[in-house]
Each structure stands twice: as structure tokens, then as C-alpha cells.
Design brief:
Length: 903
């Protein structure tokens, strides 16, 4: 114990008194044993806390409920009616999965997750979850992905879904795509689900940052979020994910007492026990308490209270503490006699406690997570916790597959069971006491009935009244705007459009200036949410600290070390910048919270999340996928982009593939701008597309480079911004020459390409047309539907893809150079069948050196562009092979050099 270490270093002001206390403790251990000693020590600690002797909290407590029976509040509901409604929901949830698999073998679905968590949800629906029908934003509820059938089943009872809808669980093709999605997916059911959760760990992480974002909005006086709680339901197995637990200390640091995690501790995950040899509830308690959370354990149902009351010797408590989860799981599948012999068996005092219980009563002693009195008490305590500053986690012990019968309940395979045979279904019906509602005749001819109570039944009335009182049905996604946003004035973009004159600047610097101008816009500025992990100085964005201030819920309680500098580190409780520290996952979660604010809060906000481009799609790709599912809007800014532009940082930093990864995510608009005015055009038109009348649920990814060069002004022609958005535009016409070629650049590759064009003209008489490809992804996504059109409408009038229209008549071969992998420009090669298309890119792992050396190494420098162009022209017969040889000699290119991809 660490105590030993430090206590000997503290001053002992009265050694005699100390000795007396120690001897008393020794005596207790000798005479009454360790259990008694532990009890006394705990009592002392309790007294110490009462008398405000501040003492570090211990991280774990005995394996019993946190809330004692005598401290439970009055349960205000009608337990009989709630139980009936819950039985209906349980039935329909199971039926929809079984039916789905009957009609389409292997379609999947989960019976046992919701079966274990029905009471966790229903306690919330009947008493706590706030809806939005009153015009407010209500609570934000993150449902455990695999519990989706139960949530659909309730929506069915409430009349929000029909039998036909339930019959289309996991059948989303047909019926105009109006099936029920397997899991919570706003992209697929935009009026229903709000938060995607099924990728384990991302639900709790994004919920935590949503709670933090609510505080941010509130502190910035953009929205009153004080009435909204964030509830996140998660599995105990899900807690293995680093994303689940990795940010929990932020919640207590930020005093997020608006956040409630409910962990469904059924002790099982997919393959078997979560902690067979240990106790997951105890482990999680220690982790969360250590991180400063309010932990409420709901382990035992009410019937256990009587047993604990009889436990004068502490033997039951001892047995509870010493039984591992693997054994508890076994008890959940065995009969009463086995439990009597094994759990209560070894100690006669223990056996005596349950002597008046039958085997059947022993078998059905419920766990706390199935006991709505206990759950109500826990949820109420979590609600009352508001003001304490601590987030709450409720650890509810349940049985996986509860009520589904002995073949399913608690079995290791339970997670994967999707079918129940006729006998098991009848068994379930009887166990749920649904014989009157579902008589045998309802099952005739293989019929598989759902059950919906009539609208004049007391059950229906009760259920609906509860939801009415709490603000209406949930989940419900709305995009009702509660606080409209005005887009920025066009003048904001003027600075970038006019170029940098003679000054050499980077696109990153250009963007930082734009961000500042956007934030200064008197009408729009407050809607900007700049997000950065611990990298602002790398991007030169520290200049914004002083002006926009870093959001810090407690303000700034110290004078910063650089207080006397113009650009000091400035924190404020109404700061605008989310400086997230070193967590790309957390920063992306903030991006999602701010970028879905238009829906979750009805307050559109525009996040600009700027990060090391290498640590974006590659590091948190699944979160970005989730952002697309959640219909996030906003801008991801991949700074320090390019495999050769970020010099010196080497293999783990130099990004040449984020644009490849971006191309895999639908709805991401990926751009690789070369010049500041391109950045301005993309941000301007991007905002109009997302937040203007089109209201498109997309988000943007822009690369930003840190290479300084003179930024040209926007070409003066109508519609240039739209051309930039289209993904490709002619940047410079070819000079007069007999031989011509087409050179395309993107991003920082422009300098080598422009230089090469000059060399080609002066040394070899080749005139080059220059194009800027701002988005190969956009070009490909424009061309694919055209290709599809032709496939499906062979006889109809032909259509032409934008990239084909733009380039098919351009002169000579096309050489497309990028600081990313060759596969990026290759995205369009197929749509230029009449052209010779040569991509030059940076395939291979990065390494540290100067830009010049790296560009030579990856064969994307001026020399290689020249040689590639001449080689392509030679292939077409317009120049001699000797010109290629000449160029290689002129620029010192070794044709036998090792391919950089292989090094
Ligand atoms: C990131 C990720 N990895 C794996 C899975 C597959 N998976 C789905 S459910 C599950 C087990 C869940 O166990 P638990 O969290 O305890 O939930 P329970 O169903 O027991 O409530 C796994 C591994 C997933 N959905 N997401
Ligand atoms: Mg589990």
C-alpha cells in the first residue's frame, strides 16, 4: 500500500496517542477478525468525511448496493403497469429479431443485450428521459447499439412504428429504404436516431464530449443547456475499449454533473465473461472513483436486502466480495439447489440465512439491474447529483438474456443467439405473463404475433401519459432551428482572394487569418468553434489564444507565465477555442458535438478542427466515419499535410495518404488546395452548402501546408469559386509552342510543376497548360454517376463527367503531380480513356530530410516532372527519346535508383 510509503515521512506530533490507536486496531483484528477491522475503519472514514477531515476517498467499496434500502426514495410509478408495458416491449423486441431471422436466415440481430437492459431503459423512459416536444432540446440519450430492438419495440407500442416497420428490421433495401437499421444510425433513420453508438467505445466518448459541449454552449451564452442531461448506455465489455475509459477524467475535471453513464454489467461480452476471474463492477468502480466520478452500484435486487439484514456476522458480505464473475455467471444458469450448495453452502451461518427460501426463490433472487425500485433510486440520485460537480456512473448488475429462457440466459453463446423455436417462444410468453394477450390461437399456422395494447387500455394510457409528462417520445432527431445563424459577410474572404502580394505565406497561415476574420464577423463570429489538439503553435494558431480565448470552465485561476506578452496563453470560461490537449479522439468527439449542434440543440455551429493531418483519418478514422453517420457538418483541417512538405519529421508524421483515406468516407468533401484563395472559396461555398438553403449534411476535409510561398490572387473570371469547388480548373493557359502537354498540380506540388513548366518551355520547347486539381474525390464522385448512367441507360443520350469535359481536349499527355500517393490522382484516370495519364506521387513511408531531398527521393520534384512529361511525349512520338535521356542527365536523375516505395 502506498500509504506505508508516505505516512512514515509525515510528522508524528503525538507518538503515544498513535501507538494507542494502532494497538486498538491490532486487538480488534485479533479478537473479532479482519472483517470487523475493515468495518471499523470504514466507519472511521465515514466519520472523518462527516467532520470534514479531508481524506482521499478509497477507490472501492464492498460488493453491495451503494444506496441502502432505507435511503431509497419513494417510487412514484405504478409498478404493475410498468411491468406490463415492459413485458410487451420485451416480447416485441424478441419477436422482431426472431421473425427477421426466420424470413432471412442469417440477417442477425440481438436478443440478449436488450433482454438484460430492459429495466435500465424503461426506468428512464417512464421517469427521467426528457423529450423535445416542449420546444427545448431535451436530454441526449446514447442507446447501446445492440439494444436497438428494444427501442424499436417501444416506438411500436407508442404508435411511432408499424408492424410492417418491425418486419423490416435489418431489411433496409426496398420500401424506399425505410427499413429499421440494425443499430442507431442517423444517416439511415434521420428522424429517429440521434447518436451512432455501435462501434464500441465511441458512444461513451462522444457522449462525454457532448456533455462538455453543452457546458461550452451554456458558458458562451449561446444556449441554455441547463435542463439537458446526457445519458450514455454502454456494455461492461465495451469498457475494454480505450475510448470508453480514456477520457473519463475530463468529465470530472470539467465538473460534468450533467453526464450519466449507465453500464449494463451483465458480466458478459460476445465470447464469454468480461472478467471471469475478477469482478468487473469492482474494477469499474475503482477506475471511475479514482477519476472523480460519483459511482452508484446497483448490484442486488430488493429481495437480497432481507438476506443482508440477517447477515450479522458479515459472512454473506464476505461471500459476495469473494465470488468472482465467472462463478456469478454460473449461478445465473443453475438451479436453486446448486446455488444453495455452492454459494450459500460452505458456511453454516450462510446456509442459515436462506434456510426459509425455496430452491425456486433462490434461483430467482434478482440482480439489481432488473429491479426498478433500485434503478429508480440510482437514477434519482444521479439527477440529484447536479450541482455536485461530479459526473455519475451507474453500474447495474444484470443477467444477459434475462427472461429469454434457460437456453439463452447467461449462456456464453447468448450474444449470438437470434432464434427461438416455437417452444421457447411459448415459454417466453408464459414467463412474461402474456397468455391472455397472446393466446395459443394467436400462434396458429406458424403465425408470429407482435403485441400492442389497445389505445384505451390502462397500460397504453399510462405509458403515453408518462412520455407526455416528460416531453414526448424518444429517440427523435429533429433539425428544428432554435437559434438561427447568419452566414458571414463576403468581405471576410477578401483578404485571401487578393493574394499575398510579395509576401511568402503558407495556406495554414492563410487559413488562420481567415478563421480570425470569420470569428470577428459581427453576426456570424460567435458560431465559429475552433478546435485544436495540443498543436496550435505548430500551426501558428497560438496567435488566436489571446483574441478568442481558450475555453476553460473554471476560467484562468493563475497568471500565465507569458502574461506580459502580446499573445499570452489566455483561458476563459466563455473562451471560444476548444484546446483539447493531446487527444485527437477527444477533439474529433468535440467536432462531432459542435457539428451536430444544428440538430441536437437546434443551434447551428461551425467547427473548424485543425490537426496534424497524419493523426486524422489514420488515427481516428472510425470516429470520422461516425461523424458522417451522425450527419456532422463543419471543417476538418489537415495541417502539416504532404509527404514531402512537412520536412524533417519523418516516417510517423509525413502524411501522404489522408486523402486516400478521406476518399473512403461518403459525404466527406476532400480538398487539397494549393493557394489561400482556394481555401477561401472552399470554406465560403462549403459553408453555404452546409448551412445555406441547400442544408446538406456533409463535412469538409481540407489539407493545409506549412510551406511558405507567394499566394497568387484569385483568377479574375466569373464562377471561379464554383470551378474550384468542382475539383479542377485551368490555372494557366499554355504558351505558344509546337509541342504541348497538360500538367496538373494539387496542394504544395504546384511549385515543382510550375517550375517544370518553365523548364519544359525553355529547355525543350514544350508549352504546358497548368491545372489545379483541388479535389480528385469530387471529380470521381461526379464521374461515377455518369458511368452508372451509361451502364443503365445504354440507349439514352450520353452524359459527360466534369473531368472528362475539362481534360479530354487538353493538349498532349497529362502529368498529375501530388504530395500524396499516386492513387489520389488515379481516381480520375479511368474517366480519361483517350488520354495518357501519368500520376506522380509520394508512395512509400516518409523519412526526415529537407523538402528538396524528399521531393527528389519521392520523384515529385521539378526534374521528375520534366522527365515524366518528356517520357510521356516520347511515347506519343512528339519528342525524341533522346530528350528524356538529356533531361535525366541534366538534372542528375539516376534511372537505376531504388524505387522509394521499396525503401
Ligand atoms: C469497435 C467494435 N468492436 C467489436 C464490435 C463487435 N461487438 C459487438 S457487441 C460486442 C460485445 C458487447 O459486449 P458488451 O459491451 O458487454 O455488451 P452486452 O451485449 O453484453 O450488453 C462486440 C465485441 C463492435 N461492435 N465494435
Ligand atoms: Mg456485457
Amino acid at each position: 500500500m502506498i500509504f506505508d510509503g508516505f505516512v512514515n515521512q509525515l510528522p508524528d506530533t503525538d507518538p503515544t496517542e498513535t501507538q494507542e490507536w494502532l494497538e486498538s486496531l491490532d486487538a480488534v483484528v485479533d479478537v473479532h477478525g479482519k472483517t470487523r477491522a475493515r468495518f471499523l475503519l470504514t466507519k472511521l472514514l465515514e466519520r472523518a468525511r462527516e467532520t470534514q477531515v479531508s481524506f482521499p476517498a478509497s477507490v472501492s467499496t464492498p460488493y453491495i448496493n451503494t444506496i441502502a434500502r432505507e435511503n431509497e426514495p419513494w417510487f412514484p410509478g405504478d409498478q404493475y403497469l410498468e411491468q406490463r408495458v415492459r413485458a410487451y416491449i420485451r416480447w416485441n423486441a424478441a419477436m422482431m429479431v426472431v421473425k427477421a431471422n426466420k424470413s432471412a436466415d442469417g440477417i442477425g440481430g440481438h436478443l440478449s443485450t436488450f433482454a438484460s437492459s430492459a429495466a435500465l431503459y424503461e426506468t428512464g423512459f417512464n421517469h427521467f428521459f426528457r423529450g423535445k416536444d416542449d420546444g427545448n432540446a431535451g436530454d441526449h440519450i446514447y442507446f447501446q447499439g445492440h439494444a436497438a430492438p428494444g427501442i424499436y419495440a417501444r416506438a411500436f407500442l407508442e404508435g411511432r412504428l408499424s408492424e410492417d416497420d418491425l418486419d423490416h428490421f435489418r431489411r433496409e433495401i426496398g420500401r424506399e429504404g425505410k427499413g429499421l437499421s440494425s443499430y442507431p444510425h442517423p444517416r439511415l433513420m434521420p428522424d429517429f436516431w440521434e447518436f451512432p453508438t455501435v462501434s464500441m467505445g465511441l458512444g461513451p466518448l462522444t457522449a462525454l464530449y457532448q456533455a462538455r459541449y453543452n457546458r461550452y454552449l451554456h458558458n458562451r451564452r449561446l444556449d441554455d443547456t441547463s435542463q439537458s442531461r446526457v445519458w450514455a448506455f454502454l456494455g461492461d465489455g465495451e469498457c475494454d475499449e480505450p475510448e470508453t475509459l480514456g477520457s473519463i477524467s475530463l468529465a470530472s475535471r470539467e465538473k460534468l454533473d450533467n453526464l450519466i453513464f449507465v453500464v449494463n454489467c451483465n458480466l458478459q461480452r460476445l465470447d464469454g465473461p468480461v472478467r471471469g476471474n475478477g469482478k468487473v463492477i469492482q474494477e469499474l468502480e475503482a477506475t471511475f472513483r479514482g477519476a472523480g466520478w460519483n459511482v452508484i452500484k446497483v448490484i442486488w435486487g430488493s429481495k437480497w436486502d432481507d438476506l443482508l439484514a440477517k447477515d450479522k456476522d458479515g459472512v454473506l458480505l464476505n461471500q459476495m466480495n469473494n465470488t468472482v464473475d465467472g462463478a456469478f455467471q454460473r449461478y445465473s444458469v443453475e438451479d436453486g439447489n446448486f446455488i444453495r450448495e455452492n454459494f450459500f453452502g460452505p458456511d453454516p451461518r450462510l446456509r442459515q440465512i436462506v434456510s426459509d427460501l425455496s430452491d425456486d426463490e433462490l434461483r430467482t433472487l434478482p440482480r439489481g439491474g432488473h429491479d426498478y425500485h433500485k434503478l429508480y433510486a440510482a437514477y434519482k440520485a444521479a439527477m440529484d447529483n447536479l450541482g455536485s460537480g461530479a459526473p455519475t456512473v451507474i453500474l447495474a448488475k444484470t443477467v444477459k438474456g434475462w427472461t429469454l429462457g434457460s437456453a439463452v440466459e447467461g449462456r456464453n453463446a447468448t450474444h449470438q443467439i437470434k432464434k427461438l423455436n416455437a417452444e421457447q417462444l411459448m415459454d417466453l410468453r408464459d414467463r412474461l405473463f402474456l397468455k391472455d394477450e397472446l393466446p395459443d390461437s394467436a400462434f396458429e399456422n406458424g403465425n408470429m404475433p407482435y403485441y400492442k395494447p389497445p389505445e384505451d387500455s390502462v397500460e397504453y394510457q399510462y405509458m403515453m401519459e408518462r412520455r407526455r409528462a416528460l416531453g414526448g417520445s424518444l429517440p427523435k432527431r429533429t433539425t428544428r432551428v432554435r437559434r438561427p445563424m447568419t452566414l458571414p459577410d463576403e468581405t471576410v474572404f477578401a483578404e485571401l482572394r487578393k493574394g499575398s502580394g510579395t509576401q511568402a505565406v503558407s495556406t495554414t497561415m492563410g487559413f488562420t487569418r481567415l478563421l480570425r476574420s470569420l470569428a470577428r464577423d459581427p453576426n456570424f463570429g460567435e458560431r465559429v468553434v475552433p478546435i485544436i489538439p495540443d498543436e496550435a503553435r505548430t500551426f501558428g494558431m497560438d496567435a488566436l489564444f489571446r483574441e478568442l480565448k481558450i475555453y476553460a470552465s473554471q476560467g484562468q485561476m493563475y497568471e500565465p507565465v507569458d502574461h506580459d506578452m502580446l499573445l499570452s496563453y489566455a483561458e476563459s470560461s466563455d473562451g471560444q477555442i476548444l484546446e483539447e490537449g493531446i487527444t485527437e479522439a477527444g477533439a474529433t468527439a468535440s467536432f462531432i458535438a459542435a457539428g451536430t449542434s444544428y440538430a441536437t440543440r437546434g443551434v447551428p455551429m461551425v467547427p473548424f478542427y485543425t490537426f496534424y493531418s497524419m493523426f486524422g483519418f489514420q488515427r481516428v478514422g472510425d470516429l470520422i466515419w461516425q461523424a458522417a453517420d451522425a450527419r456532422t457538418k463543419g471543417f476538418l483541417m489537415g495541417a502539416t499535410a504532404g509527404r514531402t512538405t512537412l520536412l524533417g519529421e519523418g516516417l510517423q508524421h509525413q502524411d501522404g495518404h489522408s486523402l486516400v483515406l478521406a476518399s473512403t468516407v461518403p459525404f466527406v468533401q476532400a480538398y487539397d488546395p494549393a493557394f489561400a484563395y482556394e481555401v477561401a472559396a472552399i470554406v465560403n461555398l462549403g459553408m453555404q452548402r452546409m448551412y445555406g438553403p441547400a442544408n446538406d449534411d456533409v463535412f469538409y476535409y481540407l489539407t493545409l501546408y506549412n510551406e511558405n510561398y507567394v499566394m497568387p490572387a484569385t483568377p479574375e473570371r466569373d464562377g471561379i469559386d464554383a470551378e474550384i469547388m468542382g475539383g479542377l480548373y485551368r490555372w494557366l493557359d499554355a504558351p505558344e509552342a509546337n509541342i504541348k502537354a497538360t500538367l496538373i498540380f494539387s496542394g504544395s506540388a504546384h511549385s515543382a510543376v510550375r517550375e517544370a513548366a518553365k523548364e519544359l518551355l525553355t529547355q525543350y520547347g514544350v508549352g504546358c497548360e497548368l491545372w489545379s486539381a483541388t479535389s480528385y474525390k469530387a471529380l470521381r464522385e461526379d464521374a461515377l454517376p455518369v458511368e452508372r448512367w451509361h451502364r443503365l441507360h445504354a440507349a439514352s443520350a450520353p452524359r459527360t463527367a466534369l473531368v472528362t469535359a475539362l481534360l479530354q481536349d487538353s493538349p498532349g499527355p497529362i502529368i498529375a503531380t501530388t504530395d500524396f500517393m499516386k492513387i489520389v490522382p488515379e481516381q480520375v484516370a479511368r474517366f480519361l480513356p483517350t488520354k495518357q495519364f501519368v500520376p506522380l506521387g509520394t508512395d512509400g513511408m516518409g523519412r526526415s530530410d529537407t523538402r528538396e531531398a524528399l521531393r527528389r527521393h519521392f520523384e515529385v520534384d521539378t526534374a521528375h516532372v520534366v522527365v515524366a512529361t518528356l517520357a510521356a511525349l516520347a511515347k506519343e512520338g512528339t519528342v525524341e527519346q533522346s530528350a528524356v535521356k538529356d533531361a535525366m542527365a541534366r538534372y542528375g536523375i539516376d534511372p537505376e535508383a531504388v524505387d522509394p516505395y521499396l525503401q
